Hints:
This protein is of the alpha+beta class. It is built from 17 helices and 16 strands. The radius of gyration is 25 Å and the shape is globular.
Amino acid sequence: MASPVNDPDHGFCRDCLALMPGRPPRCAQCGSPRLARHPELYRLHIAHIDCDAFYAAVEKRDNPELRNKPVIIGGGKRGVVSTACYIARIQGVRSAMPMFKALEACPEAIVIKPDMEKYVRVGREVRAMMQALTPLVEPLSIDEAFLDLSGTERLHGRPPALVLADFARRVEKEIGITISAGLSYCKFLAKIASDLRKPRGFAVIGEAEAVSFLAEQPVTMIWGVGKAFASVLERDGLRTIGQLQAMEQGELLRRYGSMGSRLYHLARGKDDRRVHPEHEAKSVSAETTFDTDLASLVDLAPVLRALSEKVSARLKKANMAGQTVVLKLKTRDFKLRTRNRQLSDPTRLADRIFHTGLQLLEKETDGTKYRLLGIGVSDLSDDDRADPPDLIDERARKRALAEGAVDVLRDKFGRKAVETGYTFGKGHRGRPARPEEEEEAEVRHPWERI
């Protein structure tokens, strides 16, 4: 489809893709008001795609009775909100909000425990559709990714903007959920653009307008400027990106170190990071939030064992191993404790992960009550050098052989076919229910991703 290049008066309809000369309020062919126009519309090629309220959207797709009702995806009254539909968001519900606060804000909400297997399956369907557009797809999470569509116009017979709009239509029709897309010349602004018109959004930020657009935005729009750092900037009188634009790079470096360089460049819309289709995982972990606070090792150890087995299963499935075991605890007042221990060699064994984590946990069971427990491994590598035979500890070698035999039985008869003494008969404490867990199999350095 031939399209005018850089013509501010020649857009297209996002619903039927008809080209629209001039500035009509609606599409002349289908009557839709969803028209895309921008001075740089046909020459931008970096896109960010984000599924709208992904978990909730999948649940509403599978149960049409939920369509016009507020839906929260989360794990029980003691858990946190994984995501909420836009009806619930209007009433103040936000991701990561404690469930009791979410229900205070929206008491009529329908709460659904996450079904991660289903969400991963749908996420892979969306990812496959992305990869059909371009090989340069950089996933950020299960439901969002960067795409570099440069050089694809000859393949698709359309400029990237039309390819992106058509992709949004097909996801809605074929998968049954909606997406929002941002289009720009760099990753930073593409990510910002995808958030501007949610849900079912399509926004463009061009190079010519970048500095003026950013000048009016709060400093928190820059990645890495969270609440704590925003407070530091505010104490220095810096609230908007425009104020950062007025400062020299040397001054920002002097005040804020390496973060000052990021502030200087991103405030001016300068971001030369490329879209990388592959990134190595930094860690593999699993965690769960309890229905009631737990303090004793007797109560916590079965949970630790079950989570260690989950982490081990993920490592084995991915043919990976980790050399540092990381224990995560959250107190009843939401204070986070993390403890870690480096091993002599990489491991993928549940037994070794568990016993290392148990040693760390024993030092933290001092009467403190915990609402969350997690275990993971970092310093990942291939598993070809994992868990070499221990010539000194014969019992460790026997436990490793036994674990291998258990894995075979579980692969054949299911995860519940064989249990350890720690988890047997312990119910949800010893084997945490899948929906209540944070299913983040990979944790990556955020600046590499966003």
